[in-house]
Amino acid sequence: MHKKFHTIFSSNLKINILTILFLTFTGVLLAQNVPQKLKINGTIKTVDDKVLQGASILIRSIKDGATSDADRKRWVSVSDKNGNFSLDVEPIGPLYLEITSIGFSDIFLPLYPEKNVNTFSTGILNMEESVNKLNNVVVTASAKKPFMEMGVDRRIFNADAMLTARGGNAVDLLRNIPGLNVDVNGGVQLRNSSPQIFVDGRPTLLTLEQIPSDDIEKVEVITNPSAKYDAGSTGGILNIILKKSRRNGINGLISAGIGTPGVSNANLSLNYRQGKLNFFVSANHNQRGGIAKSEAYRISKKNGEPIGYFEQESKNDRTRRFENIRLGLDYFMDEYNSLSISRQATSGISLNLENQTQEYFDGQNVLERTGIRTGRDETDFKRNNLQVNYRKTFQKEGKEWTADFTYGGRKNSSTNDIANSFFDLNGNILADPNLVNNIGNSNENQYTFQTDYVNPISESSKLELGARFFNNISNDKLDVFGLKNGTATKLPLSNNYGFNERIYAAYGNYSNKINTKWKYQGGLRIETSSFRGELKDSAQSFGYNYPAENSSIWNAIFPSVFLTYSPKTGNDFQVNFSRRINRPRFWQINPYVDITDPQNIRKGNPQLRPEFTNSFELNYNRTYDKGNIFMALYFRNNTQDITSYTDTINTRQLEQLNSAAVEPNALLSTFINADRTNRLGVELTWQHKIGDKFEIAPNFNAQYRDVKAQVNGLNLSNSGFNWDLRLMTNYKLSVPKSKIFNNLSFQLQGEYESPEVIPQGRSLAQYEFDFAIRKDFLKNNAGTLTFNINDIFNSQRWGNVTETATFFQESYRRWNVRSFRLTFSYRFGNKDLQIFKSREGGGEDRG
Description:
Blueprint: H1 3-10, H2 13-30, E1 38-46, E2 56-62, E3 72-78, E4 84-89, E5 95-100, E6 107-111, E7 119-127, E8 148-150, E9 155-158, H3 170-174, E10 180-182, E11 188-190, E12 196-199, E13 202-203, E14 216-222, E15 237-242, E16 249-260, E17 263-274, E18 277-288, E19 291-302, E20 305-332, E21 337-362, E22 367-393, E23 400-423, E24 434-455, E25 462-484, E26 487-490, E27 495-513, E28 518-535, E29 540-546, E30 557-568, E31 571-582, H4 586-589, E32 593-594, E33 600-603, E34 611-624, E35 627-639, E36 642-648, H5 651-656, E37 667-673, E38 676-690, E39 694-708, E40 710-711, E41 714-715, E42 718-733, E43 744-753, E44 757-758, E45 761-763, E46 766-777, E47 783-790, E48 798-803, E49 807-813, E50 819-830
Parallel strand pairs: 1-7, 12-15, 33-37
Antiparallel strand pairs: 1-4, 2-3, 2-5, 5-6, 8-9, 9-14, 10-11, 12-13, 14-15, 16-17, 16-50, 17-18, 18-20, 19-20, 19-49, 20-21, 21-22, 22-23, 23-24, 24-25, 25-26, 25-27, 27-28, 28-29, 28-30, 30-31, 31-34, 32-33, 34-35, 35-38, 36-37, 38-39, 39-42, 40-41, 42-43, 43-46, 44-45, 45-48, 46-47, 47-50, ...
C-alpha cells in the first residue's frame, strides 16, 4: 500500500478499536439458530447440464389467510460450487421455491413434501439462459439506465447516463443535473439555495472535487426534505450514492484517462461476494490544471461623483490533484441481520500560482500608478472516513431497524506567499514590495450516531422513528507575517481558533392511505444545537445556542406534511410543507480577515444567527411510455436570511492590515442576517425518448426573489426575476453491421443562467456547453472509450455587479477552464470464482 495511504489508515486507532468492538458485540447479540424441522436440498444446473454456482435460493411458507408476521416465514441460501443447496425449514403452510441467477430465467414452483418426513429433495433443477437478461456479470454495468427516475419524495439521477462527466469529479457530474447551479468554486445551489451534501446518506468532509465521478452510482435530489432528515437542510438535500455491488463472485471496473490542460484520471473498483461476506475496494486518481482569468472594474464615489477608478486582471495557474481509496465489507450474519464497515481515505494537493496586474486612475480616469501582485498558494490535505452500519430486517416486508456510526476527519496544511509592488507611470518602483507570508494548518473531526426504525403497520400505513447525534470539533491555526527589511512581523490577520458544534435530534413520521387515490405523510422533528467558537490568542468567544434559554420552543420544532393525490396510474399531484433551519458555517462566523485578494477582502461575523425557512411546494408528476414530466410551483420564506454584505474598508480596519498591501479603497465583504428573503418559483423538467435512439431532457426554472434587509441604517432591500434553462440530449447509433458506428453514443448538454438579484446588486449571466462521445466495444461491450469536452466555449464563470453610495464594482472569476479528456474503461467479472473454501450443501449461507 502506498505510504501516504498507510499513514492515513494508521491514524485514529481509537476508531479502529471501536469498529472491532462494535462488530464483535453485535455478532454475539444477534446470532440466531433456525429451527430444524424439514431439510430441503437440490442441485442447480444449466440446460446443458453444467453446474450453476451462486444461484439465489428462496423458500417461503405462508399460512392460508395470512394476516401477520407469524403467518409468513422465509429462508434463503445460494448454490455451492457443485450447484448444490440445502436449507433447514419449519413449514407453517404451503411451501414455495424461487431460484434466480444473473443471465437466467427465474424458476418458481410449489413444493409438496410428504407428511412426517425429515428430508425432501427437489432433484436437479435446470435454469435456462434468458435473452432478456445479460449473459455475463460484466455486461450489467453497460445496461442503459434512465437519466432520471422519480421517487416518492425525490428525483434520482443515474451517473452512468452522464457521459460528459466520465473521468471527472462530482462537480462535473452535478452540472448535468436539472435544477442545480454549480459555480466556479464547486459551490452548488438548488433553486438558488445551498443544499446539504450527503454521501451515502451521511454528512461528509469531502469536497465535491474530491469525489471521483466514476465512483458515483446515482444522485438523489430532495427539494423539500421530510422530518426524517436533518433540519439544517433548508436548501434541500443532495445525496451522493457511491457504487457497491453485491453480486456473487468477483466483478469490477478499471479505467484510465488523459487530457488537457493537465488532465489525468485512473480508477480501479473491485467487488467480491461469497456466501455471507461481500468485499469491495476502489482506488482513484484525478488531476486537472489550467490558467484561469479573473477581472474586476471599480468606481469609487463620494457624494455620487467618481473620485477614482480601479482595474484588476488576474491569471491563476491552478493544479488540483487527488488520490482516493475506499474499502469495506458487508457481513450477512443471517437472513435478517447484516453489518457493513467501510473506510475511505483521500489525500491531495492544490497549487495556485497567481499573477495579477492593477491599474489606479484618478477621478478624471487618468492613470496614476500601477501594481503587480504575485502569489503562490499550496495546500496539502487529507480526508478520512469510517462508517459502521448495522441493519436488522424482519419477516414483515419493509420492517427494519438500522444503527449507524460515521466518523470523518480532515487535516490541512498550507503556505501562501504574496508579493505586491507599485510603480509610477515611468515604471519606477514607488516603495519596497509588500511581502506577506501565511502558514496554516487545521484539524477537524466529525462524529455522527444515528438510528432509524421503520414499521409498516399495515399494507397502507407506516411508522418511522429515529434519533441522531452530531458532533464537529475543529482546530485551525493561521500565522500571517509581514516581511519588511528582512524582519518578519506577525500581523493581526493571524488566526488561531477552534470550535465545537453539537446537534441532537429525534423525529417521527407517519404515513397512510385514505383510499386508492389519496395518501399522506406527517412528521415532526425536534432538534437542538450549539456552536462554541474561540479565538485562542485573544480568548474571544463566539457562537450560539438554539433554542436559546429564553427563546421560543418553536425554534427547536420542525414539522413536515405531504399530501399526494393519484387520480390514475402515472399521474401524481402532491402538496407539501416543511420548516427548516440554516446554521451559519464556521467561516461565516469566524472574524478572521482573508486578504487573498487585497482589493476584495472577506471577513466572518461572530454575531450571525441561524436562519429559518418555511417551504411550500405543489408538484405534478406525469409518467408515460416515452418519458416523464415533472412540474413544481414552490414558495420559500426565509426569516433572518444569511446574506452577503459589502462595504469599503474603514480606517481602523486599514490600520490593522498594515504591511498587507491593502489599499484604502479596498472592499470588505461579510455576512449579515437580513429581515427576510422570499422566493416564488416554478420548475419544469421533461424527459422524453424520440424513437429508439434519441432522448431529450430539458429543464426550466424561473424565480422571483424579494430581499428585505437593513444594516447600519442602510437599506439593502432588493427584488427581481431570474431564470435558467438547461438541456441534455442523447443519441445512440445501432448499426450491427458496422464495427465503428455500432454502439456509438453522443451527448450534448448546455445551460444558461440569467442575472439574479442580490442585496446590493445582481449576479451576471453565465452559460456553458459540454459534449461527449462514447463507444462500447469488445466482447459483451465490456470496453468503453469516452471522449468529452467540458465547457466547449470556455465561457463558464461567476460574476456580479455590486453598487452602493460609495462604489460600483463589476467583477468575475473562474477556477476551471475548457478541458478535453479521453477515457478508456473495462468491466470484468467471474461469478464462479471462490477464494474461500465453501462447505458442501450451502445450508449455512443465508446472505
